[in-house]
Amino acid sequence: MSSALNPCHPKAIGETVEAVAVQEVENLTFVPDREAQWHDAVVEGVLCPRVADIGFVGIPLLESGTAVEIKGAQLTSGAARGRWFIRQRQHERLVEERGAYLLCVHDRRGEELLAMAVILASTLEGLLPDGWTSVDGDRSEQGYRQLAWSRVFDPEDVEGRR
Hints:
Blueprint: H1 10-24, E1 28-30, E2 41-43, E3 55-57, E4 67-74, E5 76-77, E6 80-81, E7 83-87, H2 88-96, E8 100-106, E9 113-120, H3 121-124, E10 133-135, E11 141-148, H4 155-159
Parallel strand pairs: 3-9, 4-8
Antiparallel strand pairs: 1-2, 2-4, 5-6, 7-11, 8-9, 10-11
C-alpha cells in the first residue's frame, strides 16, 4: 500500500485511509492490487456492529469472504464537504459479486478516520446521482459518480468529532 507520491496526493491519501481502516476494523483483511483491483479488503469471520464500532447502512452484517472497497472522503475540501469517487467498473463488479463499501470520512491527510459505515454496493446504488460521467487529468476515469459524505452521515455527528 505504500506510495512514493506526495502524502497529500489523492492516491496517497486513499492508500493511507485503506491502511488505517484495515487496522481499525476487526475481521477486515487487506487485499493487494496484484490480487484484485476491484476491491481493497475482504471480510474474514463476520463483520457486524458487535465486532466493529462502525455504522451499518441497510444491512446487519457482512459474511466471511465479502469483498469490500474502502472509500475515503475528506471532511472538507475547500468550503464544501468531501465526496466519495465511485468508479463504474469497480461498482458494477461489487454489485455483481455482492460486495460492499466501507465509506470513511477522514482528516486532511487520511490519518484519522472520523466516521465509517458499511453499505452493500447494491444499496449504495440508490444514493448515487443518475448517470455515469468521465474525468480527465491525473485521476482520469471513464464512468464515475461522486457522493457527498453528508448523504450517509449526519454532518453534526461527524463534524463534532474533530
